[in-house]
Amino acid sequence: MSPQGVFNTGVTYVPISWVIIRRGPIYPAMFSPLLLIITTAMDSLLLGTNIYLGSVVGTMLIFVGLYAFLWGKGKELQLSRAAMTWPYPW
After folding, report:
1. CA atoms within 13 A on the CB side of 58
2. Taking the chain, what is the end-to-end CA distance rounded to the nearest angstrom?
3. What residues form the membrane-spanning segments (predicted)?
4. How many angstroms separate the CA atoms of 21 and 57, rounded?
């Protein structure tokens, strides 16, 4: 096993663990589709491959879905905080 692999795995697991502790296990899974977008962009920039209309539409759908999820999760957190402090608004 190479030292680069160990370092890369450690660098990956630390932020994922931190996000899971702070927000729950759904958040890291929601950001996995962004890796596809980053890979497509880097492939186009570095290797000069073409990006087709289907890729652009798919990218837009991923962003809309991610935004909708984060918006809904934020609303859910606001409602749960309001419900926890309802009788005592201070």
Report:
1. 13
2. 55
3. 26-45, 51-71
4. 33
Provide the token pair at 45.
């920039």
Structure tokens at 90: 């201070």
Helix axis angle for 53-84 and 32-47, nearest 10°, is 150
Backbone angles phi, psi at 65, to 5 degrees: -65, -40
The gap from C-alpha 64 to its chain's centroid, in whole angstroms, comes to 12
pTM of the prediction? Answer: 0.61
pLDDT digits (tens, 9 = 90+) for 13-51: 888 888 888 877 777 777 777 777 888 888 889 988 898
Query: Angle 39-8-70 (CA atoms, 0-180°, nearest 5)?
Result: 55
Write the pLDDT tens digit of every residue in 44-90. 899 888 989 998 898 889 889 888 988 888 888 888 877 777 666 55
